[in-house]
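User: I've been trying to design a sequence by hand for this structure and keep getting stuck. Would you show me what you'd pick, starting by listing the structure so we're on the same page?

Assistant: Good idea, let's start from the same input. This is the structure you sent:
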């Protein structure tokens, strides 16, 4: 959090919430991310759980709670989804392929917005589809910028390696060839929230026969540009 309000307890609670923007975290991970004292983080997290602003997953890790979803609905439509709509259509028309936005939810990534190629062979991923965090370029993007502990956990059983994720961080985009599904290629880039953390992945997918064995070479520039536009829209 770059600009504290001056109300200490609120600023620290906001730091805890910000730290969970990218997914569930243990108490130790929250301490590492927020740089707050362990007793302070524990006390704040338990209070936020009491008010349903945080919850715990099956592994006992802290995660954003159901009250935030309720408040978001009360405030109006999701900014990420609403901002993504026209940009996904633009990217689809630019690349000629189906486009999607994925968010991480626990051990899965969920498609929250999509624009399908209207005709011909295409990769169809309806809104609401849950896919694995162990395969695909979007999964690579959603994991690549995690802290060390989450990254190590996420690599267990994954079809990509730590070396692949290092390349994703260096380039700023990811690609996959038949990783999630045989014959399907994809390219993804990170979407960042107001705090700068990666909160979603913007993706484009289609058949390898059309995208070639080097889909990133063909489309990474366009995808990174549109992902940056979506990031900018969320900060305004």
């Amino acid at each position: 959090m770059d600009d504290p309000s001056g109300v200490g307890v609120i600023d620290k609670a906001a730091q805890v919430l910000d730290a969970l923007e990218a997914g569930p975290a243990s108490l130790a991970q929250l301490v590492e991310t927020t740089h707050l004292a362990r007793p302070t983080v524990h006390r704040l997290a338990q209070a936020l759980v009491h008010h349903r602003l945080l919850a715990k997953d099956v592994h006992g890790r802290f995660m954003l709670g159901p009250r935030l979803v309720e408040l978001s609905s009360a405030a109006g439509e999701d900014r990420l989804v609403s901002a993504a709509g026209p940009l996904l259509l633009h990217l689809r028309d630019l690349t000629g392929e189906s486009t999607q936005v994925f968010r991480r939810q626990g051990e899965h990534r969920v498609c929250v917005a999509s624009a399908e190629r209207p005709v011909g062979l295409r990769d169809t991923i309806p809104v609401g589809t849950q896919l694995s965090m162990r395969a695909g370029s979007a999964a690579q993007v959603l994991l690549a910028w995690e802290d060390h502990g989450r990254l190590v956990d996420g690599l267990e059983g994954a079809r990509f390696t730590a070396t692949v994720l290092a390349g994703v961080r260096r380039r700023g985009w990811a690609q996959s060839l038949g990783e999630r599904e045989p014959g399907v290629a994809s390219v993804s880039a990170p979407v960042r929230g107001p705090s700068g953390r990666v909160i979603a992945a913007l993706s484009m997918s289609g058949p390898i026969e059309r995208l070639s064995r080097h889909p990133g070479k063909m489309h990474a520039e366009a995808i990174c540009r549109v992902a940056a536009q979506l990031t900018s829209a969320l900060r305004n």
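That's my pick for every position. To get oriented when you compare it with your attempt: The mean pLDDT is 91. The longest strand covers residues 198-207.
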